[in-house]
Every structure is written in C-alpha cells, then in structure tokens.
Amino acid sequence: MRHTAVYDSDILHWATETHLDEAGYLLGARATDLTLPGKTLKSVQHGTEERFAANIDGLQLGGTFVATDLLLPAIKNDDPVDSDTTAAATYAYCCHAPKERLEIVLRCLSHADPDNEQAQGIVAGLQLLDRSDVGDLTREALYSSGGDTHASFLAIMKTFAVHPGPIVEASLQSADVDLQLAALGVAGRINAPHYAGYAERLIESSEPKVHDLALEVALAGRSRVAWNACLRGTQEHGPSVQGMELCGLLGSTTDHQSLLYYLGDTQQRAAALWGLGFTGRAEAAEACLAWIDAEDSIVAKLAAEAFCAITGLAPDDDNTQDTKPDDNDVDNELHPDTLIDDAGVDLLPLLDRHAVESWWYSNRNRFSGRQQRFLYGAKATPSSLVASIRDAPARRRHAHARELFIRSDGQHYVDTMRMTSTQYSQIDALSGLQINITRSR
C-alpha cells in the first residue's frame, strides 16, 4: 500500500521520530517473542508485529520528506543507538519503494563495518522484506564490495535463496568464522547436497555456531559423516544442545537411548530433556515424567515441556499446573546458556507430577507402538509436522523447521524469523508434503 506524502512540519518530524523509535523497540520485542514458550506465530502476528507494522505505516505517511530526512540518515549512521532502529529504518525505507532505494541501502552496507550495529541492522531490515528483487540486487552488490563485507551480503542472499556464484566455495574454505557461517547458510538454501562435503569439513570447527550449522547443512545433504558425528558426540562426550536436538528429531529408538542415558548426568540433563521432547516417543515421555518434580526448577520445567510436546497435554491446564510458587532453585552452572538465557525457560510452567501421572494413566493407551512418533499428541506425519511449524509454541518451531529442512534434503524451508505473512506463505506452500517423518537419518 502506497501512502500520499503529507506536509512538512515540526509536528510531523516529532511524530515520525517517535514512530521510528517505537518501530525499533517493537522489532526487538518481536524477535524475542519468536523464541518464547508462551507465544505462537499467530500471537506474534497479532501482537508485536501488528504494532510494528502500524508504526511503519506512520513512517510511510511522511513520504519523501521522512525517507530523506529521517530514515536514510538513520541507515547511514555508523554509530546507531541500536541495530533494531537501523533495521526498522531500513525496512521502512525499502518496503514500498523503487529498487533505487534498495541500491542506496546496499551501497551503505558495502561501506559499513560488518562488526558494527549499523551493518547488522541493515542486514536484518533487508531480510524482513517481502520483495522478489532483493536477492538479485544483493548479488550484484556483492561482487563490487570489499571482502570484509561478504558475510553480510551472503546472509541476505541466504534469506532469499539466491545463488551467489563461485564465492560460496571460497567462503566455505575461509578461516573467517562469520564468513563460514554466512556461506553455510546460503549453501544450505541453494543446494545442500552439493555443498555437503564442504559442510562435513566444518563439523570439526571449534566454533559452536559453525559446528552446529555445518551439521545441519551436511545432514540435509544426506551425509553419513554428519550423522555419525552427531551420534558420536552424543555417545562419547556429550554434544551441544543442537546435537541433542538433532538426535531427538532424526534418530531411531536405539539412537534415543543415549539421550535417556544422559538424564543421569547433571551436566547434560537439561540438554537431554530438550532433545527427548523431539523424539515423539512414549518411552521418552515417561522418562521426562520422572523429572517433572525435580528440585532444580529448570530441569522440572524442561521435563514438563518435553512431556507436553510429545503427548499434547496443555501446559497451561489449571488441573495439571503446580500451585507451589517457583522458588527458582537453579544451579546455572549445570545448564547451557542457550537453554536458560535465550529461550524463555523461566517462563515455562511447573506441573504437578501427581496430576500429570493421573492424566498419563488415563491416556497412555493412545500412545502405543514403540516405533511410533507423536507430535503434540498426534501421530507424526508430514501434515502434523507442518502443523507444528505453524502452531507449536514459538520457542520450539525453529527445531520443527530444522527437521523439515533436513528430511526434505534442503528442498523445503520455513524461515521462522521472517515476517509472519512470509512464514504463512512458506507454510502454505507445503500442502501435500511427502517426506518420511519416522525414518532415522
């Protein structure tokens, strides 16, 4: 929707600055909401994202005056207040604009310090756009930019699944971690099987983010090396949270025994519970049930979350919630930071073990079959996986989208951080999906 420009005035300047500040704040809040257990794609759409869009509309009403005097200076500012404000300015400047504005922003990116919040904000803003020309224009800008900015351009091209050309191979062999991550991301989107060999070599990286993404891309390329590395890490020294998750999502009942084993290890228990929640097995649900009343509240909450993810028990059911106050009795040294700080674990409810056991006793027969997987109480099928990507708690949707990506050999992808309208379009495109949802990778 295009808006007619309104007259220049002090009131307009004040109003649009307020809109930009609020849009930046809401963009950050929206990103957080997309990782929380109490949020869903639908609630984000009608919550922070709707309010963000309203402020973008307010900026659009200012027409060329606001674009030139407020948004572009905010984009060019190499010392921004935060990356979210730069991202909001970038999005507002480009979302209903001719391609010339995109080209201006890409030139700004080519001169920005990639480690600066300016560059990070420009990339984030461009990644939110729903425009068919972003990827191709970014590829053109890539080859006229300096090498230190290549990671930023590749990150944008990953979002739009545009092939950057031979620079992918060179970047995958670079010693620069940011460039490795960006190259892995775009390689997975454009042709995971083709780049699986490069990803295999990066599995041995000492950088956790590189290791985890390399596993994901190589697995989408049907790499046995990657799957063996995932299992070896689980069996020998305990993997990352991502390794536990992949074992749960893609493993067999035999593979899942290592997750059950790690419940006995205080250092690995939290990550093991996270992985068990994705196995979909009744055996795993019963194992999690035993930890629902753990003294460590993080363990108790993760056990309850995993049990509900398998069985479909509503975690906000008043009949099963624990009425005792959460005393936050947590030993943070026992848990990976990603499970505590970044994903809203503290917002998970505590459940009453006796009430859950009673529910399980009444419903256990619905979960027969040792080889059968379940997703939120429904038998695991391609359609139930798609439903989970659409409707599951926001914090768990990313893992379900990862399973889709890997099991489809990289052919299907839902970007769980893009605008909700884009995500719904990607999900709608999965109608009639045909993949094997139960076979071990």
Question: Please, could you describe this protein's structure?
Answer:
The chain has 441 residues and is mostly helical. Among the domains are: 10-131, no CATH class; 381-441, no CATH class. The protein has helices spanning 10-33, 41-45, 48-60, 63-76, 83-94, 99-111, 117-127, 134-142, 150-159, 167-172, 177-202, 208-220, 224-236, 241-250, 257-261, 269-276, 282-289, 297-311, 337-340, 353-363, 382-391, 394-407, 420-428; strands at 374-375, 378-379. It has a two-stranded antiparallel ribbon. Helix 1 packs antiparallel against helix 3 and helix 12 (208-220) packs across helix 13 (224-236). The longest helix is centred in the middle third of the chain and has 26 residues, at 177-202.
SSE arrangement:
Layout: H1 10-33, H2 41-45, H3 48-60, H4 63-76, H5 83-94, H6 99-111, H7 117-127, H8 134-142, H9 150-159, H10 167-172, H11 177-202, H12 208-220, H13 224-236, H14 241-250, H15 257-261, H16 269-276, H17 282-289, H18 297-311, H19 337-340, H20 353-363, E1 374-375, E2 378-379, H21 382-391, H22 394-407, H23 420-428
Helix pairs in contact: 1-3, 1-5, 3-5, 4-5, 5-7, 6-7, 6-8, 7-9, 8-9, 9-11, 11-12, 12-13, 12-22, 13-14, 14-16, 14-22, 16-18, 17-18, 21-22
